[in-house]
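Quick one, tokens below. Sequence please?
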């Protein structure tokens, strides 16, 4: 397992000198690997003392048992505050007073802010598939190619090269040498005038872009994570009354449906959601969407109309407050 910080860092030294019986952890904690190992939790567990851990994760008992010295509890308040869920709910309540209806003129929207491996893979994938439309997709970061041994987060490992060729059908090295593509790697594509935007800003800025698109491909926080960690990003298309799928952690969609009470769309095949390898998962996700990319705007609109009942249910699940109530009922503190 890769360490999120070095053994001589202040964070590591702080854990080693820890002497409390309670820890409040926020955000995704650098995620879990394929064996459901998390470096922070393992570091606390190795202190060999009973510690209560409050986290934004809802973990299965099988995962908790991997950390015998830790009493891990879900902190609903931290999830709601940390992911700005109240701001999204407020937007939905206001939107419920209106009935915006936009014709589907664009295939796909996708919003990519902070650079991490998943978003880098995603924007490269979308660009070479011809799905990255600058008017509806953002890329707030440059992608810098350096020799492989110097890479920390760039998508160059052998399995990525193989899967890129498998799903995209192009040679990755030619991709990097293409002038047009290299221009794209360097290009910054933003929406709105602000350098830093909050969830309250983003949910408004992205509304019309999502509503004019057939599907919003959500670039979630940690697609390399093996445990679901949904954020406000997955709620934006829901409150915009737009079809969506997410490039997210393993089991993200199942979690959204079974734990958070949202309903799946009948038009999508969610088999990709159970693919353990994050790059293979992206390939299967885009392969599933390919048939829709070849449709006309009228066909997109027909599918959207067929899914309206589910779209409205999911919207009302947020706007009515039932979604946040459900999260609070899952609280373990």
């Amino acid at each position: 397992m890769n360490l999120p910080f070095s053994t001589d860092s202040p964070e590591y030294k702080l854990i080693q000198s820890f002497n409390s019986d309670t820890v409040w952890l926020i955000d995704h904690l650098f995620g879990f690997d394929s064996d459901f190992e998390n470096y922070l939790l393992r570091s606390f567990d190795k202190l060999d003392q009973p510690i209560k851990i409050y986290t934004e994760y809802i973990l299965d008992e099988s995962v908790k048992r991997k950390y015998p010295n830790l009493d891990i509890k879900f902190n609903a308040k931290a999830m709601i505050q940390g992911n700005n869920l109240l701001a999204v709910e407020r937007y939905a309540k206001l939107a419920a007073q209106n009935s915006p209806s936009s014709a589907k003129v664009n295939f796909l929207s996708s919003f990519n802010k902070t650079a991490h491996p998943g978003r880098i893979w995603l924007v490269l994938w979308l660009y070479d598939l011809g799905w990255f439309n600058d008017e509806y997709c953002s890329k707030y970061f440059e992608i810098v190619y350096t020799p492989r041994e110097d890479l920390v987060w760039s998508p160059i490992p052998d399995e990525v090269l193989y899967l890129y060729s498998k799903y995209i059908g192009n040679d990755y090295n030619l991709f990097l040498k293409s002038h047009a593509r290299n221009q794209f790697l360097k290009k910054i594509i933003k929406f709105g005038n602000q350098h830093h935007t909050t969830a309250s800003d983003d949910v408004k800025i992205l509304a019309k872009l999502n509503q004019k698109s057939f599907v919003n491909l959500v670039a979630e926080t940690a697609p390399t994570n093996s445990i679901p960690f949904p954020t406000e990003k997955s709620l934006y298309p829901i409150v915009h009354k737009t079809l969506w799928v997410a490039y997210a952690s393993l089991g993200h969609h199942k979690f959204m449906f079974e734990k958070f009470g949202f309903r799946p769309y009948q038009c999508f095949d969610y088999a990709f959601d159970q693919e353990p390898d994050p790059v293979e998962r992206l390939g299967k996700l885009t392969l599933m969407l390919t048939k829709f990319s070849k449709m006309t705007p009228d066909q997109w609109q027909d599918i959207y109309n067929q899914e309206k009942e589910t779209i409205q249910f999911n919207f009302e699940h947020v706007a009515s407050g039932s979604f946040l109530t459900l999260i609070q009922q899952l609280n373990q503190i």
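The first strand starts at residue 22 and ends at 24. Residues 10-74 form one domain.
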